[in-house]
Amino acid sequence: MKNIVILISGGGSNMAALVRAAECEQWGTRYGAKIAVVLSNKAEAKGLEFARSQGIATAVLDHKAYASREAFDAALADAIGAYDRPGQPALVLLAGFMRILTPAFVERFAGRLINIHPSLLPAFTGLHTHQRAIEAGCKFAGATVHRVTTELDHGSILEQAVVPVLPNDSPAALAARVLTQEHLIYRRAVVRLLQGN
To answer: What pTM did the predictor assign?
Structure first.
């Protein structure tokens, strides 16, 4: 059984959508994969409650308890490594994990470290994507699932979804429209990876 590890920092709506898809679509039977653990850098992350309610193991590694980014990432990598199996390395999904990862961490999980970002990459890397799209006068916005590289919000694009930017849109309203698409495309990208595509 291939383990899927999901990293979150907050509410975990993308994680919850993936958990629901895995159950409804029987990923274990169809793809030999299961969501094994949800890890967070914040003990108060609401997504942890949902994961526990679904019988999924959870763990917290508070980044503030470590002297450096490198020390935190090393501990996080070790926690994820516990779910690696010979010939079946874990798939690591960032789902609202609000940490910039060190090159050593990215290298360790290269090719199986996936992120979802709320913009049509390569546009609007980083934070405040919806506000920036509105201020730039964009007619369209969206979300991107991509492989993680050492360069922030770069890496090969696996899936994208487009939504219109409406007249008088607020960042919150645009974010809500984009989020519905995030839930769809993250699942689609993960299934394609599990199928070997």
So the answer is: 0.96
